[in-house]
Design goal:
alpha+beta; 4-stranded antiparallel beta sheet; 7 strands
């Protein structure tokens, strides 16, 4: 699988919130990695990158998540991934990442 970070509140899909301990499923996922914008749940490999993105586009809060192999693709964006389904990690799970 893959652990990444994303904005807690969606920056582009209405009022979607990515809450700790919850599984979120995208309506669709594009495996086309050559373009920067396609369907899927976006995240970033580095917490700092996700935090910068959220500060510029959201509320500044980020959460870590896990995506299973076969359900994510690296995008054309710098360090971004696009996922079909994610499980937002709990605070306890996040502590274990350190």
């Amino acid at each position: 699988g893959y652990v990444a970070w994303r904005a807690e509140n969606s920056c582009h899909v209405g009022d979607t919130r990515y809450l700790r301990g919850k599984t979120c499923i995208a309506n669709a996922l594009s495996f086309d990695s050559a373009t920067a914008c396609h369907p899927g749940i976006y995240g970033f490999a580095k917490r700092e990158t996700a935090l910068d993105y959220s500060r510029n586009n959201g509320n500044g809060n980020v959460v870590p998540f896990y995506a299973r192999d076969g359900e994510w693709v690296i995008t054309a964006k710098d360090g971004a991934v696009r996922c079909a389904r994610i499980r937002v990690l709990t605070e306890e799970q996040e502590k274990q990442l350190a």
